[in-house]
Amino acid sequence: MCFVVFIVIGAFALSLWTHGQLLYAAAAGAVSLFFLFFSIRKIIKNGPCLFGKRRDC
Question: How many CB atoms lie within 10 A of CB 40?
């Protein structure tokens, strides 16, 4: 879910950037990176469960 939110907000930040709204684009990009951090953290923490190495998840 965090990765989907990252993609959506990232696309929104890119749209703002192309329309010249640089301050809002930077803020949206920062929020997007926040969700990317939690996505990567979740993948690292639950990696064995996600990739089938552990079955007791």
Answer: 13
The answer to whether the beta carbons of residues 13 and 29 sit under 8 Å apart is yes
Alpha helices in 1-57 (DSSP H): 2-18, 22-45, 47-50
Which pTM does this prediction carry? 0.71
pLDDT tens for each residue of 22-56: 999 999 999 999 999 988 888 888 777 767 776 66
Both structure tokens of 57: 């998840």
Q: Which of 47, 44, 42 is nearest to 2 (CA)?
A: 42
Cβ neighbours of residue 39 under 8 Å, at least 6 residues apart? 2, 3, 6
Q: In whole angstroms, what is the distance from residue 11 CA to residue 22 CA? A: 14
